[in-house]
User: Fold this.
Amino acid sequence: MHFNRRRFIKSSLGAAALAGTQGCLSAAEPRKTTVPQLDKAAAAPILKLSSVRSPVKIASVELLRDNRNHFVRCRSTDGAVGIAVTNSRAAYLYPILQKLVIPYFIGKDARDLESLIDGVYVYKSNYKLANLALWCCVAWVEFSILDMLGKIEGKPVGHLLGGVVNKQITMYAASGNRNTTPRQEVEILKKHVDQGAHAVKFKVGGRMSNNADSMPGRSEGLIRIVRKALGDKVTIFADANGSYDCRKGTEIGKLIQDHGIDMFEEPCPWDHLEETKCVADALVIPVAGGEQETSLRRFRWMIHNNGLDIVQPDLHYNGGFIRAIRVARMAAEAGMSVVPHMSGGGTGYIEVLHFASCTGNIGAFHEYKGGIERTGQWCDPPLRFKDGAIKVPTGPGLGISEDADILKNAKPVE
Ligand SMILES: [Mg+2]
Assistant:
């Protein structure tokens, strides 16, 4: 199928499928791009800090932990403070954070954050470690600095990152099971719908498994019954976590689209760009991917070559908000939407909410893996997953209230 026809069909179907309840999806118009055009979009300035007129010199960045979470806290020489919650990978990535990332930021002006993200990549030859082990650590420092700058400005991070255009974000409930039977899984998905979700996602394949299923016949069995079981009003996504090659991914993808499922995520191993494009070219429904990707140039390749239809940078894995916005801006040039992958644990959904609040070409539904019951209390007002949506925190920075005192049991990690 030629580029224009495939993109036209996908964007039309994607817009119809994703129109959902939110109505904030920018209409996707398929557009052919040039590499210089994408580079220009990615490089455009992002931060709006016009009212912070004096330098915000970074005095310290520390890693702390309590019995559940790791935290990164930065302080300016003037006493401003920013706090971020890491994902669970800090438990083993902390030496990279402490030895190779934090030292670079000390003494720098936080207002230069965009160029600091580029600078830390070459500091001590960090580019040799380029992957999520490095970029997660950069993201955590970036989150803490943005939280600090937001508190100085008295605005949520979405304001600093271009302006809040969406105040409430519709979420899809993601089910991570691969050990359920099709009948058991459908019952779990139904519960999410009963609790208010307008969109759900389930797993197919065996996860990076060279075409093997997690249980014989599970994926095909589930695909055949899920639409009928959930009804026509629910948006349904399927995620293969890199289970297939192009041949099998296309076979499963066609079964998925024939059974009314709206999007197919990561059909092939995440770094096998050609195979992913091979599946995307063969299907009419949108193919999504990019959750492990940490190279802006490989994102550019996927967007320029229409290797997929929806890009999914992870705000932690890919190095923070600024780099994810650069991906989103390239995608916007091509008429693609962006649906960030959500790192599990910590406050991943809070970062996703802020990102979606300030990004024009976001998809209609965003990943939600639960966890809001406990950490949602840290915001004022507390966050709730209600009618399939969560309101974006409105407090300054990341929106975690100082009254929540989230570091009260935390100790520095030496
Ligand atoms: Mg996934």
In short: The CA atoms of residues 294 and 318 lie 5 Å apart. The pocket of magnesium ion is lined by residues 239, 241, 265-266, 291, 341 (CB under 6 Å). The radius of gyration is 21 Å. The chain has two domains: 3-45+161-402, 58-154.
